[in-house]
Each structure stands twice: as C-alpha cells, then as structure tokens.
Design goal:
With about 325 residues, the protein is an alpha+beta fold. The protein has 3 domains: about 35 residues, no CATH class; about 160 residues, Jelly Rolls (Sandwich), CATH 2.60.120.10; about 110 residues, Jelly Rolls (Sandwich). It contains 7 helices and 23 strands. Bound molecules: 2,5-dihydroxybenzoic acid and fe (ii) ion. The site of 2,5-dihydroxybenzoic acid (GTQ) has 8 residues, from strand 3 and strand 10.
C-alpha cells in the first residue's frame, strides 16, 4: 500500500525533544519508524557465522520413489517441472536448500516435454539416470544428456527439456533462486511449448561430459588441501563455483571450514562426511549440504566422485570469503 506524506503521523520534533525518559522517547520514536539501537531485541552483529540452515542429507532412493509416484499422478505439462525440492527443515523455510541455493530432483517420462522458459536465476543440472534421447534445449540448441553430465542453463537463457527415449530421465537441479529472492531481481518469461532446436550438440560451453571431466581429473594435481578436484570452467555462471572431486576409498580429506554454502551430490561410490558436529553417510545420487562455516571432512568408504555446487564466487566478489583448515 502506498502511504502519502499526509498519512504519516504528525509529530513535531518538539515531541521528541520533550521526551522525559528513555521509555517515553522510544514510544515517541515508534510512530516515526525509528528503532533505538540500544533497545534492539536481537543483536544484529555476532562474532562468527551462525547459520540458521542445517547440515542435511537427502536420499536418492526416496526421491526416485517419490518421482515415480508423481509420474503416475501428474504430467509434466501440468507441473511445469516434475521436481522434488530439497527443503532445509528450519523454521519458516519452505523452499531453500541453503541460504542462497536450492536443489531438486527432477524426472521426465518417455514422450514428455517440459516447456521452455527463462528466468534470472542461474540453473544447472547433474544427470543421474537417463537412457538415450533425453535432452535439454538451451537457447535453441539441443544437448542430449548422459549420466554424469553437468549441464548449464545460465540466467535468462531459454531452456526446456524433452525425453524421446524409452526410459524415464532423472537428474538433480541446482539454482541460485534463494539468492535472487533475497536481492529481488526476479524475472521469468514463458515460451509456448518446448522451443525447437536448430542443432544438436555435445560440445558446448553449457555441457561438461563425464568423459571430459574424467580426462581433466586424470591430469589434475592435488590442490593445496590435498583434494583431487577440478573446477568446471563456467564463466556464464557468476554466482556458483562447480567442482568435481575424485576421492580414494579409505582416504579421508582435511577438515575445512569455509564461509561458502556447499551442496554435494554423489556421482559414484559411497562413504560418509562430517559436517559440523554431525556425520552423514552417502551413496550414489544422494545430496548432502554444508551451510557456511561448518567444518567439512569427506570420508569415502570406497573410491568416490562428488560434485559440489558452492556460492563461493559471491563470497569472493564481495570480500567476505574466509577459509580455515581445522586439522
Ligand atoms: O528445469 O527449468 O528444479 O526452472 C526448478 C526451477 C528446475 C528447470 C527446477 C526450474 C527448473
Ligand atoms: Fe528453469
């Protein structure tokens, strides 16, 4: 509602000047929408990050059962997207997975199309289970999905999905929607149906194939923290850093604490991870999360590969990033 100057309380400065005590002053400030800092109900600053979001894991077997049931009950045309969001179970949250990021499992049945749209949030997917002819059309270019692919749909790029194969296609979506909701530059445009594709490719700055990532990992040297980890070269994604990490069974990593928010998706193998005071077991397809400033250590039980989506670039660009080695 719009408030006019005339609707504002008529309060002369003299009313403030006549305050007899602090309580009285607060009462006189209230209608002017001033809050006396010394009366704050909650501190606005604190010594170290104390994220509201919780470390969590979501299970692929449960998500798959849920999506398969949804496949019987709702078609993709109706749903816009047949997806299951991973909602961090904290008070008042009904959507976000972490403060800046949201993740969802998505499924498309054979013959289905998920219509094209575009939005300011940046999105990407990690392909789990697909047979042939399941694809995304990004700005009029068709990219066929293979298991392990990372597929980008940067902010405001047109994107829709299709499945012309004989098996359902499953993948994991990652988006910076909660960050966009916070900053508020949200825009969404709808296409009618699925945008047709003038060409089909597997060689695009918008796709990182498992083959290409494996090849890059085979050449990679451990980083300063002993991680065999590559960062995907994705300049079109300004808010997220994408990493693929290869881990050797039985070899635990360092205990690292960073301000960034991190979502981990298990590409292969199994193990467990310590996040803050908790420990989470995981296997292929599971998703687990580390809210900022939680110490993280991966403990693979067997050879494993983990994909990580982090809001690191946001922290870095704004000068907020800190990382501490805890052991
Ligand atoms: O596939 O375009 O899980 O726009 C959430 C929002 C997927 C998508 C999601 C989206 C998409
Ligand atoms: Fe989308």
């Amino acid at each position: 509602m719009r408030r006019n100057q005339e609707d504002l309380p008529v309060t002369g400065f003299s009313d403030l000047a006549n305050a007899v005590d602090l309580d009285d002053l607060r009462r006189r400030l209230d209608p002017l929408d001033f809050m006396a800092g010394w009366n704050k109900h909650e501190p606005s600053l604190w010594k170290e990050p104390r994220t509201a979001f919780k470390p969590m894991v979501w299970r692929w077997d449960a998500a798959k059962a849920g999506l398969d049931a949804a496949g019987r009950l709702i078609d993709a045309e109706l749903a816009e997207r047949r997806n299951l969001f991973m909602v961090n179970p904290i008070e008042g949250n009904h959507y976000a997975t972490l403060r800046t990021l949201v993740s969802a499992y998505q499924m498309l049945l054979p013959g289905e199309k998920a219509r094209t749209h575009r939005h300011s949030p940046n999105a990407l997917r990690l392909v789990l289970d697909v047979a042939d002819s399941c694809y995304t059309v990004v700005d009029g270019v068709r990219i066929d999905m293979q298991p392990g692919d990372v597929l980008l749909t940067p902010g405001m790029s047109w994107h829709g999905h299709g499945n012309e194969g004989s098996m359902p296609g499953y993948w994991i979506d990652f988006l910076d929607v909660p960050l966009v909701q916070l900053l508020e530059p949200m825009f969404l445009d709808l296409w009618e149906g699925l945008q047709s594709a003038a060409q089909t490719t597997r060689e695009s700055p918008f796709v990182f194939t498992m083959e290409a990532m494996q090849a890059q990992l085979a050449q990679a040297q451990p980083d300063e923290h002993g991680r065999l980890r590559i960062r995907l070269d994705a300049p079109s994604m300004p808010t997220t850093a994408l990493f693929m990490e290869k881990m050797e069974g039985g070899r635990s990593g360092r205990l690292l604490r960073s301000t960034e928010n991190q979502i981990f998706a298990v590409v292969s193998g199994s193990g467990s991870s310590r996040i803050g005071d908790e420990s989470f077991s995981w296997s292929r397809g599971d998703v687990f999360v580390a809210p900022g400033w939680h110490a993280v250590r991966h403990e693979p039980g067997e050879d494993a590969m983990i994909f990580c989506v982090s809001d690191l670039p946001v922290h870095e660009k704004l000068g907020f990033h800190r990382l501490r080695v805890e052991d």
